[in-house]
Design brief:
The protein is mainly beta. The chain is 7% helix and 42% strand. The chain contains two helices and 14 strands; from the N terminus they run ββββαββββββββββα.
């Protein structure tokens, strides 16, 4: 597995080695020992999530607070999505900064998102399958978010505004300035 740093502290791009032959492909999508050796970060994932979305869907920016914060390893199994993260860790050198990357079934890249980050994605192809591992269980009471079109963050979602499909819940999220980082 190839590991690349991003502009955000503790946030990494993982590119698994893919073996291909006449039968198809095989890749190891995560190896805890290999990851620990390369990053010094030990992580145990306890929950896997998957969604299927059509072109134009924007999900996020979501995060959980306190002891329910989640580290995530995200990837696209089929289709493509722009994955976006924002560092919300007060005192972090990359606090308030964002990073985005196109994840796709074709490029097989993954993004390691540490606890204390907001996460979202926009779907760039119909029938995109998005999958992610979490190191903590979902807890509704600690769920928070930042509105997708926050002026301070100024995220380019790679979609025109008339193509965006956003849930009512996500449209009502507060701004970055209104949240209380930990």
């Amino acid at each position: 597995m190839k590991l690349e740093k991003t502009n955000l502290e503790d946030c990494f791009i993982l590119s698994p080695k893919v073996f291909e032959d006449e039968r198809g492909t095989f890749s190891e999508t995560f190896n805890a020992k290999n990851f620990l050796d390369q990053t010094g970060i030990a992580v145990t994932f306890v929950q896997d999530n998957q969604s299927t979305s059509k072109y134009g869907v924007v999900r996020g920016l979501h995060f959980q607070t306190g002891v329910h914060g989640q580290t995530k390893l995200v990837r696209v199994v089929k289709g493509s999505a722009l994955d976006v993260v924002v560092d919300l860790r007060k005192g972090s050198p990359s606090f308030g900064k964002s990073f985005s990357i196109v994840l796709s079934g074709e490029n097989k890249k993954q993004l390691f998102v540490p606890r204390g980050f907001a996460h979202g994605f926009s779907v760039l192809e119909d029938d995109t399958v998005f999958a992610y591992k979490c190191d903590a269980y979902y807890n509704k009471e600690s769920e928070r978010g930042i509105v997708y079109n926050d002026a301070t963050l100024a995220i380019d979602w790679h979609l025109s505004s008339n193509a965006m499909i956003i849930s009512k819940k996500d449209l009502e999220l507060p701004t970055f300035a209104a949240i209380k980082p930990e």
